[in-house]
Amino acid sequence: MSEPGSRGPQRSTKGVRAKSRPADRIFLGLSTGSAASIMVILAGVALFLIIQAVPAIMADWQTNPDLTSGPTGGYANFWTYVGPLIWGTLFASAIALVVGAPIAIGIALFISHYAPRRLAGILGYLVDLLAAVPSIVFGLWGIIVIRPFLLPLSDWLNTYLGWIPLFGGQVSTTGSTILAGAVVLAVMILPIITSISREIFLQTPRLHEEAALALGATKWEMIKMAVFPYGRSGVISATLLGLGRALGETMAIALIISPAILVSVRMLTEGENSQTIAANIALNFPIATTLQREALIGTGLLLFVISLAVNMVARIIAGRAGKGALRKRKKMLAQLPPSDPSTVLAVDDVLARKSPAVHTEGADDPEPEIDREEREGKDA
Amino acid sequence: MSATISPSRQPSGRIANSLTSGQLPRFIEWYMLAGSLALSAVILLLMGFNVAGWLVLAAVIYLIGLGILSSAVENRRKATDRVVRGLVTVAFLLALAPLISTLITVVANGIGSINWDFVTQTSQSVFDPDTLEVTTKVGAWQAIVGTLIITGIAALISIPIGILTSIYLVEYAQPKHWMARTVTFLVDVMTGIPSIVAGLFAFSLFSLIVGPKAFSGFSASIALSVLMIPIVVRSCEEMLRLVPMDLREASYALGVSKFSTITKIVLPTAIAGIVTGVMLAIARVIGETAPIFMAASFTDNFNANPFDGPMQTLPVMAYTGYKFPGQDIAASNASAWGAALLLVILVVILNLIARVVAKVFAPKGSR
User: Fold this and answer.
1) What's the complex ipTM?
2) Residues B71, B203 within the same domain
3) Phi, psi of A332, rounded to the nearest 5 degrees
4) Cα nearest neighbour of A188 on chain B
5) Cβ contact (<8 Å) for B106 and A190?
6) CA–CA distance from B223 to each of A30, B1, B194 (Å)?
7) Into which CATH architecture does domain A80-319 fall?
8) Residue limits of the ABC transmembrane type-1 domain (chain B) (predicted)?
9) Domain residues of chain A, as ranges?
10) What would the pLDDT profile of A229-274 be if each residue is shown by its tens digit?
């Protein structure tokens, strides 16, 4: 059903040419033009950013009066300005990913394999609601809830684990740390990682899961043996998409952390928070002069390139996932005795088609127990 | 299986046999949960009570306790299984906490500043000649109008382009055609454009056309369109692919032209899904702050002309109220929360409309 809808009609018009009406041709032109406009828009984004950024990148940062004062003052050239910003962007996103990705994958597992089947849909919707909350609201929430919430934890980490560079330095008293910003980022990337991972986990062939359970695996062992290997590349690509989201997020960071343009790994300090590209643009754009603005656009161009690269890698991995899984399956089938593959394949496909929601019964369900007792009775 | 066993051999009631001997009782997880909540409460009552600490400590006690108990009575594999089950559940509850906390925070902080005046008046400073005092009146009317105008124009641009592109991808292009593949890939890539980059793009575009200080509502609409088009394309494409081939083929068999087939058969069948997708896309971009802030800047003045001068919007009002407050910081913050609450209300309304449309217009019968 979900096959691309173009093949049938195309074939039918090839043999007998229908009379071409003007409305048809105009509509074809319009829709093709719209599709082409996507390419134009993306090219335009890159082009206009480059046009605006080049003067600032080429300018002499040490002598140009426009650049030696204000937010861009004191840098040898564009690259010494943007370097720490790139570090800050990657650092904040990495913390967000370390905090958020395991939780997101846990949620996806909970919804796909642990939650009661009837509740799973509603629970999934609740997590998707997180994606609907505007980023500015998360930013404000971070200021008045997350900042004070993390203060005791920061103190504790600094006191007992302060010898690790991450937690070292003078601990912040207001909570405007990169840790607080990253925690809010983590909340914001939860829904995207969760929803993709959930779909992948649900697609695990039921036969694999039941085979693992039949061998006596506990539920967790079944997930390790059947669900994770099947969904690995999907989860990796989901995580990368989450990373792409975190890289470009502006408001949470701009509102929460008190930034400095420097390379620092400290997460708990007041003045040593590495600023991110997006937040730096948002903070300095209103007060910048023309050339400074162009410098900010230059940093934006780099952000564009980085997040484009991350997204492309994610899409390519996701695309490979389909092909790779197919190839692996073919290889596995080739190793089976010749009579098996067709039946395995057929059963697998039928199951996949019949029950999109793959669920296994809980280990504490009464049925397996009865089965076991029946079998014992038989033996006796 | 069960049919081969006669009912008389079915065991009745609990029997103590080797199968259940090495196992924890059925509802041990609930007992453990209650126990760890109580223990954690007692410990915290001695040290000073707070709800977050109570729940966190209870979760830790629960996981450790269950792990030790299960590995003592059962075995290590079962213990791991039980601990993972607990961990996964904790992860889910952890995700619900920010959702609930955010909504409560926004409502609690915003409800105070929302009243009829706030919604219908514009912000302005009033100079009282007698006392020489400047009092600022806070209102969100200019931001509400700006949000609706900017999002409306963005929707007017994105919806036709998005729907037509998805029609091209589903109805016209051969799946292996280079253009279809490129467009599909680019749409995927476009969903990952950072929102602030979209704002910079619009600003660059208009500063080349209009000159510096090129802030306008229309420019912000262009920025939002860049973010909105891929969302619309993806959701419409999915909906169009759900329309059964049989319907198209039946239409072609009657000699109906392709244009009429698409507009009279395919689109009406998919309309519920398309409207839902469009509503959700609007809800997504209406809360974008960074691109509007770049392209339309901010102002306290009422401006309903999208082609001239800065325009205020709700998300930007919430941002500037906190980051660039006026003289009365408390009032600025209060108005920021008011704007945030209005924004959340708008998003909730759009989501509700999307759900209602999906319910009401869903095609009857099976797809």
Assistant:
1) 0.82
2) no
3) -60, -40
4) B98
5) no
6) 22, 63, 11
7) Orthogonal Bundle (1.10)
8) 144-354
9) 80-319
10) 888 888 888 898 889 889 888 888 888 888 877 787 777 777 778 8
